[in-house]
Amino acid sequence: MTMAARRARGEERRASISRAWIIACALVVLGLVGGAAFDPRPERPVVRRAGYRVLEADFHMHTTYSDGTLSPLTLVRQADRRGLDAVGVTEHNTVLAGRLARAWSELTGGPIVIPGEEVTTGGYHLIAVGLETTVSPDQPIEGVVADIHAQGGVAIGAHPVKRFQPGLAPVRAELDGVELMHPIAFATRNPDWRWLDLLTYYEETTPRPAAIGSSDYHFASILGLCRTLVFVHEPASAGAVVEAIRARRTVVLDPDGRLLGHPELVALLEREPYVPRSSDYAYRGENAADRALRLLGLAGVAGVAFLRVRPRRRGEAKAGAGPAP
After folding, report:
1. What is the mean pLDDT of residues 57-84?
2. N or C: which end of the chain has fewer CB within 10 A?
């Protein structure tokens, strides 16, 4: 094959790849537009029981600032899609993500965002909700809880499976809440992460802390899977949510639908049932068009990732230059 023929074939191949890449980009845009068009934003109706406003909340979630997959801004949007009234953005050992999420949610009319932090050490994890400045983990746990309370926040024992219980022991009686519901209640293959350990820890803690349901969100679809029903004084606000946790006015539902938490509020909800908002945790899509656009968008992402126009090799460029006129 002559040099000219090889050049022509190379140019034709690059042109073909370039066209395919443009089509892939268009598919990505189509998927994004379709996703926005079919993106549900559930109503958050005002619900009251016994003079309290009932809010659905999730107090444990992470962002790209550590080991999460959503930015603080997109986390707010996902919480909105889940129909949550209030969320605690609790990045590992920093409150910055929570403060950014709060600012964005206030700007866009999203849920109540309460900045917080997951104080993370090798011996324990502790959720702090209602902070403005980061609490250092480099101190005894008694100092951590004291710093949380000094800011007006609440301390919540995070997923207290057996490996973390010794680390929480010095402050067990000072905990404002305990994660009673966590995604491990639905499925786990790790024998060291058992939901029954959380249930036992909660029931054996004195005084009884607030029952907290949280998703411990990092990725995928589980944001809001485990929720806390919080009974707040109106007007509903971050401060009202923190006060309700401190006063133990919370209820969660276990995997069988059993109500757990403040005894009087449990009895109230048994008399006047409340059904938490549902959500598409399997990402099934709203309809056939939504599902088709998702597939096209994914195909576009794959195309953008794997298709690229190779630059002309130096030898080809020189050979194609030709003699000067």
Report:
1. 95
2. C
Count the helix, strand and coil residues of the chain and give each as a percent rounded to the nearest 5.
40, 20, 40
Tokens of 22: 């443009």
Higher-pLDDT residue of 308 and 198 is: 198
Size of the chain, expressed as the number of residues it contains: 325
Q: Token pair 């929570």 is at which residue? A: 98
Report CA torsion sign: 136, 114, 224, 222.
negative
Closest-CA residue to 117 (of 136, 138, 103, 102): 136
**Burial bucket for residue 66 (CB in 10 Å: 0-12, 13-18, 19+):** middle
CA distances from 150 to 70, 95, 115, 176, 241 (A): 30, 15, 15, 13, 17
Q: Which tokens go with 118? A: 């997951």
Q: Which of 1-10, 55-64, 151-160, 294-303 has the lowest mean pLDDT?
A: 1-10
Cβ distance 56 to 276 under 8 Å? Answer: yes
pLDDT value for 137: 97
Give the bridge partners for 90, in sequence order: 116
CATH topology of domain 48-271: TIM Barrel (3.20.20)
Residue 171's closest CA among 141, 209, 131, 140?
A: 141
Put simply, whether the predicted model's pTM sits higher than 0.85 gets the answer no
Q: Where are the domains of the chain?
A: 3-39+286-320, 48-271
